[in-house]
Amino acid sequence: MSRTFDTTPFYLFIRMMRNRLKVLRAERDWSQAEVAARLKVSRQTVNAVETGRCDPGLPLAFRMARLFEVSEDVVGSVALEVYEDGALLRSLAVAESERGRGLGIELTQAAIALARAGGVPVLVLLTETAAEFFPRFGFEAVSRADVPAGVRSSVEFTTVCPETAVVQALTP
Q: Could you tell me if 69 and 76 are in contact, meaning their C-beta atoms sit under 8 angstroms apart?
């Protein structure tokens, strides 16, 4: 039995808004107090978001997007399919218009962090197009036989991904 966690579209949107708040505010020549008043939060909250001490949370991130007229479109995704003996990192994708901005790196780091927090013993992925992307995070090529049985029983291993897909693993 597996559980799939796909919270990253929201995570990415929240992080994107957090990372852009100071720039968007400066472009409009607004003070933190002005932004706080418009968003109906404290200036301390705006400061904490801008300095990375906290993420804004989804409701505030949406209010920020509306205030600054920023798209609310999902521009990236990643998921963890968790089994008793490991997890499958899957569905990492970034919209073509957003590639080259570090979103893939951020999503991968978020998935690894989630795996660590969940006590996942090994994180496995299959890829046909991005084998050179994942080693920077510590992933190493492994054989299919080295993948834990639960992960190997996934639809991706048994049906979706061809035998030619590269298999990589990481011990978070």
A: no
